[in-house]
Design goal:
It is built from 9 helices and 10 strands. By secondary structure, it is an alpha/beta fold. It comes from Pedobacter ureilyticus.
Length: about 240
């Protein structure tokens, strides 16, 4: 029996950003499938409604891949795919599989010889890189830095050195309620001429993206508390 296809469906990064995020192919895709694997069922149902789903939601089969479901067997998520039924995979926001637990589902799909199709859509890391003015030829996304203050300071200095050595843009992030602490540590531990881009609330109505040398950032006053933010540093010389 021919297996189904796993479609990777991006979700808007912010409220009221739907019109910036949807493509005709995405809308056609969600109206051609009725089974989904999602990180958050409530968010997923809201997204599908905003995206123009014509299928009654009562007819959908939604498998929740929330925190309480991780670490156990993934077999249950592949029942429909093994039966030839196409399935959509959705993160809570942005692209599934990128800084996202959905990567486990994608990896398992490849192991099971299931076709994976990524759809075009919003991605905070890529959009931050695009708008930073930093090198897009060589870049690395580190994800979350250590929580321990000493370890975090060392990691920031290491990333700064890597950026200088390889002329490589370094991207990282933090849990939103710790953003201000991370910014303080970047400004404390990086050299004044190191470039820093702060990309906050990407695609939202109050989107804030700014690039300055660390020395000038030290004179700025910004509040990033509880606002999804990507930090980028670049030291080209």
């Amino acid at each position: 029996m021919k297996k189904g296809t796993l479609f990777l469906i991006p979700v808007p990064l912010a409220d009221n950003a739907a019109h910036k995020s949807f493509t005709p192919f995405l809308v056609d895709t969600i109206n051609s499938i009725k089974t989904y694997i999602v990180e958050n069922e409530k968010t997923a149902r809201k997204f599908l409604k905003e995206a123009g789903l014509k299928t009654p939601q009562s007819e959908l089969s939604i498998h929740d891949y929330g925190k309480h479901k991780r670490g156990s067997s993934l077999a249950a998520f592949f029942k429909e795919l093994n039966e030839g039924i196409d399935v959509g995979l959705m993160s809570e926001a942005g692209c599934p599989g990128v800084a996202d637990p959905g990567a486990d589902i994608v990896a398992e799909a490849h192991k099971r010889n299931i076709k994976v199709v990524p759809l075009v859509g919003p991605n905070a890391m890529l959009q931050a890189l695009m708008s930073s003015g930093f090198s897009g030829q060589s870049y690395a996304f580190t994800g979350y830095l250590p929580i321990d203050k000493g370890d975090r300071a060392k990691r920031i200095k290491d990333l700064e050195q890597l950026s200088q050595r390889y002329r490589q843009t370094q991207l990282f992030m933090e849990t939103p309620f710790r953003n201000n602490h991370l910014l303080e540590d970047i400004l404390k531990n990086c050299q004044p001429n190191t470039m820093l881009c702060v990309a906050c609330n990407i695609n939202a109505e109050d989107e804030f993206i700014k690039t300055l040398p660390v020395g000038l950032w030290r004179k700025e006053k910004v509040d990033l508390h509880k606002k999804p933010t990507v930090f980028l540093i670049y030291k080209g010389n």
